[in-house]
What we know:
The protein is α+β, with helices and mostly antiparallel strands. It has eight helices and eleven strands. It has two domains: 128 residues, MutM-like, N-terminal (N-terminal domain of MutM-like DNA repair proteins, Alpha-Beta Barrel); 125 residues, Helicase, Ruva Protein, domain 3 (Orthogonal Bundle), CATH 1.10.8.50. The strands form three sheets. Strands 2-9-5-4-3 form a five-stranded mixed β-sheet. The protein starts with a helix and ends in a 6-residue tail after the last strand.
Amino acid sequence: xxxxxxxxxxxxxxxxxxxxxxxxxxxxxxxxxxxxxxxxxxxxxxxxxxxxxxxxxxxxxxxxxxxxxxxxxxxxxxxxxxxxxxxxxxxxxxxxxxxxxxxxxxxxxxxxxxxxxxxxxxxxxxxxxxxxxxxxxxxxxxxxxxxxxxxxxxxxxxxxxxxxxxxxxxxxxxxxxxxxxxxxxxxxxxxxxxxxxxxxxxxxxxxxxxxxxxxxxxxxxxxxxxxxxxxxxxxxxxxxxxxxxxxxxxxxxxxxxxxxxxxxxxxxxxxxxxx
Length: 275
């Protein structure tokens, strides 16, 4: 599932390539990915509009249009936004759901194999209301040790589950929660309120570091994630925990354990050095 580094990579690619591009038409092949609009309404709303900015919020890719509306794309498990100049491989043109044709001859496709992601058209007021439900961005200056402490303090829920709560911290998902907790040496099942001040300081630094490192590697690809050019991310080879259940711990040599017991999502940890 694309998380913060993957959606940040896509958004940066789109901003570089599509800022100022005009939408000349829309083709909707599978309308079940649309939210808060219909195929006909989407075509009327965006045809002729200029893309003024492409950016990321949480795990969302946001396109600001000259009309004031926003296209908000949540790729979820198998979604991808692909810029097509006529050279995309055929495999990347399968499973197209929505295509935005551009006046310069290019196209922006939303491809989604399982069609679990969404494309939403939001007015400024609707976006403001929606964004108010999202937590702080972990790469913003406001994500301090004190803020993380406040997000964990007083909760009996597992610290990993708290880190993935988008109302508390926006953009962290299963991959990078696993990685940050491994780096910090913290057992993902521990209650948030049990995390000590020194551990919170270390965890905050490790969250920021792993996200920045993954962005530099253009995200993590296992199966379906692709950047806006259809290329795979390169961070998978740098993972210390996620996807490595049963393998040796890079820190202590013990065997990593994979479990679904914490929050129903695969958690990988080292029982020896994560306490």
